[in-house]
């Protein structure tokens, strides 16, 4: 990796959470290649996020950036902790004097069917994904407001946008992140700050936990193994650069060499009556009228059925 003196992120400072492995690692390295100075945050915890953590993944990525001539610092705070989020933003301003972009990539998994899910399974995933994205974004907000510029990229997922089995906690967090991103875009637009969500398709440590107990699961996993995590990074870099300054409030997807723009919920059918509705009238008129447009119980794999390109 060689850093570029004229890269699209030259002079900017970027915080990448979950930057020690997988998608986050690729983003951190590409940000540095584009000229950014990078805070590589990674707790180094297990997939479930329930152990004491290990800073070495973040340190390894920071060392790789510096060995290539870039500037980086490793951070081991937890995004789920308000003070930890403040500290990682402070690390950026202390070391590099500013912060220009936040990439909320840190995550964990506690996959289990809804009727078997325990409270801790739900709380732990919401705390890292949704609360973590809020914590880190909020910590950077005063700096973005003062300098009248800034970019947020939050990792959502088709598990939330479309659906998947056994991921009520993860799906709720990821769809919540899409809404959080839109709210940030609306609230921060007056300060020239943009916010977007990206659904990454990539074979990572988290995706690698998917079971392979049935032929269908094995076929799905074989397809997912073709999804390269480093393919996500160029799009994230483009969103955070000056060329992406007019792009905000959107939901994207990146699947190897494919880039998607996702729809956002809008009314597609309406029913009206002058005298008000009764339950009986709704059952007789509204349900049959709407039924042709009801969404089936699709999972992500039912929608993205073709091989990655």
UniProtKB/TrEMBL annotation:
Q: Pfam families this protein is in?
A: adh_short
List, for all copies, the residue spans of the domain called Ketoreductase. 12-209
Q: Which domain of life is it from?
A: Bacteria
| Listed PROSITE patterns | ADH_SHORT
Family the UniProt entry places it in: Belongs to the short-chain dehydrogenases/reductases (SDR) family.
- Protein name (record): SDR family NAD(P)-dependent oxidoreductase
| Source organism of this protein record | Neoaquamicrobium microcysteis
């Amino acid at each position: 990796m060689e850093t570029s003196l004229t890269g699209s992120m030259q002079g900017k400072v970027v915080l990448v959470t979950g930057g020690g492995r997988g998608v986050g690692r690729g983003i951190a390295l590409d940000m540095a290649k584009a000229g950014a100075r990078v805070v590589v945050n990674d707790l180094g915890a297990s997939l479930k996020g329930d152990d004491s953590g290990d800073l070495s993944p973040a340190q390894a990525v920071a060392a790789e950036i510096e060995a290539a001539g870039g500037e980086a610092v490793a951070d081991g705070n937890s995004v789920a902790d308000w003070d930890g989020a403040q500290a990682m933003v402070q690390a950026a301003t202390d070391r590099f004097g500013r912060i220009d972009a936040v990439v909320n990539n840190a995550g964990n998994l506690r996959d289990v069917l809804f009727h078997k899910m325990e409270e801790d399974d739900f709380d732990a995933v919401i705390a890292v994904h949704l609360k973590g994205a809020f914590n880190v974004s909020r910590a950077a907000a005063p700096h973005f407001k003062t300098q009248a510029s800034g970019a947020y990229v939050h990792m959502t997922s088709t598990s939330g946008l479309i659906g998947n089995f056994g991921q009520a906690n993860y799906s709720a967090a990821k769809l919540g992140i899409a809404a959080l991103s839109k709210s940030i875009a609306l609230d921060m637009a007056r300060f020239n700050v943009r916010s977007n969500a990206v659904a990454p398709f990539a074979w990572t440590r988290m995706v690698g936990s998917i079971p392979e107990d049935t032929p269908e699961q094995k076929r799905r996993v074989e397809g997912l193994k073709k999804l390269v995590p480093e393919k996500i990074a160029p799009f994230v870099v483009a969103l955070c650069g000056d060329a992406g300054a007019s792009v905000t409030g959107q939901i994207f997807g990146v699947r190897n060499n494919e880039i998607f723009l996702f729809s956002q919920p809008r009314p597609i059918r309406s029913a009206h009556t002058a005298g008000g509705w009764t339950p009986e009238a709704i059952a007789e008129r509204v349900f049959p009228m709407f039924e042709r447009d009801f969404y089936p119980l699709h999972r992500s794999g039912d929608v993205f059925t073709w091989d990655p390109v």
